[in-house]
Amino acid sequence: MSHLDEEQLVEAYYAPDEQSRMHMRGCPECRAAFERVQEHLDALRDYPVPERGPGYGGEVWKRLLPQLPPVRKPRAWLRLWLMAPAFATLLAMAFVAGMLTQRKAQLVGTPASTRERVLLIAMNRHLERSQIILSEIANGSTAVLDFPREQERARDLLDDNRLLRQAALRDGDAADASLLDELERVLLDVANSPAEMPSRDLEALQNRIDNEGLVFKVRVRSSDVRFKGQQL
Amino acid sequence: MDWTDSAAADEARRGNQQAFRVLVERHSHAVFRLAFRMTGNEQDAEDMVQETFLRAYKQLQRFDGRAAFGTWLYRICANCSLDLLRSRQSRREAQPPETGNESVHWLDRVAAREPSPERLTQSSQIADLLQPALKRLSATERAAFILRHYEGCDIEEIARTLGVQANAAKHSVFRAVQKLRRALEPAWGAIR
Asked: What is the ipTM of this complex?
């Protein structure tokens, strides 16, 4: 038998088979190579993980509970939705500011950080609001879901979504543009569906949101945007 | 109440949130450990813990009890973390490099950060090099390695989690080990 290659040595470390063992018994070269692999991989065992206290499970539960369906907190959502016109104005300002700063920057070299900050705030608000509507739909049933209200919200979000998508395209941010495009298609579906949605249609919409992992993608991006905003 | 995982999952499936609470409290530490190893970042790991339990709750009907509940949960966590790593990776790839440094190969960058041989005498120093080296693996390689090395999953289990063939999973583990061994080359002398 020829010498064991690196892949076989690694495999022998995790799941030693009789053939490798036999070979190494009679081959000092492979045995030495294996001992080196073993030494290296053993050294990687100590991967420090931050400690979590004994009450950690309870803390996770507290954070999780409000997100579990079918818990609904319309009043909390309502406050956010009452601010929708303010967000829309902010977004429009960001868009106009973007146009202006882009032109000015070419002339006098004005930094675009203000525009970026405004856009990040607008993007974060938009994603947070989108996350709410997506979660409500993904977790709701025809019995408990106030679908006409969700449609109204979806219509409110569509204009902002288009503006943000155009801004992302203009800035060459293909990932954001793609996410917003995906989101827009779902929002359009929600906005244009019949107000009395049959349960099988709702299920299809929920599956679509679920299969595309849209809530998760929006949440991840929202968290990234928030983090980036804090860094500016 | 002193439920087994399986009994608690059954109860939770019937809508008993307290039963699900038992599972959350029981598995949070382990899920956090896996999420942290996968993401290499505390905040991301916390987000993954939330997402894992949320997905688990929504998919409870799909848990058929053939695997242990913990194994099923870790698979969800690995997938959530994979989604995150892949989305971050695709964002990085979609954007132009921010500095000239970005174009330098990751192995060179790890090597450039290497401490002097005198400092490389403790395993904690290996851990210092391990984190950036792990972050430079592809999402699949990283997940495959973490599941194999730290979670003790077998190749079939890893393949199921990653949605790939067993051979591809095995090769991902190998590629990860190979890259890590090379990236940590400066540290190996110190552990002899």
From this structure: 0.77
